[in-house]
Amino acid sequence: MLELFGHPFSSYTQKVLIALWADDTPFEYRLLESDHQENAAILKQHSPFGLFPLLLDGGQPVIESTPIIEHLQAHHRGRNMWIPEGELGRRVRLLDRFFDLHVMGNMQVPVIDKLRPDGANDPFGVQRARERLHTAYDWLEGQIGEPYAVGDTFTLADCAAAPSLFYADWVEVIGDQRPKLKAYRSRFLAHPAVSRAVEEGRPYRHYFPLGAPDRD
Ligand SMILES: N[C@@H](CCC(=O)N[C@@H](CS)C(=O)NCC(=O)O)C(=O)O
User: pTM to 2 decimals?
Assistant: First the structure.
């Protein structure tokens, strides 16, 4: 029995949900919401910083979205090969790291800064993160595949790309100057598993600290 602890508006939860849904893998979705304190208590037992998602597989915890998807591939293999063998797999890992560290990571800086108490803001850090998002977009424009991140195969790289670029574009617009990346973002929004993640997160858009744009 697989149990996923997460929230529909959380980018890293969506990354794992996309893999589970694309494979039609059965699991129990345990929402981290105020009316489910029992789920938060279990998360605390296994995740040192209380970060989610958390997967329990027969009660055994797996934390961190990428190892969770690796675990799914190893023990609950579906139709998708999330990390292929060889050179393609190494490229998938590179892009997965890039989306998590440089897109998601920089996107989160202005978002989290908005939640800081008065007097604890970091305008220098926010400006730097916003500039770095543009550097990340420029690099990706030369790297991104078609139709998927690494070409013909839907992989872990797309699971990471979808939520990170989805939200990053709300913080700093990708823009017409990166036509390949912009088209890739539009393409993945039409993927059934990604579109489901976006729709299930839609009722929570008022949670977005910078204000969600009226699109997507
Ligand atoms: N590296 C982690 C990041 C997880 C993460 O940052 N999750 C966010 C939700 S998208 C979270 O738990 N935020 C709650 C908090 O920071 O207290 C992963 O890949 O799972």
Answer: 0.98
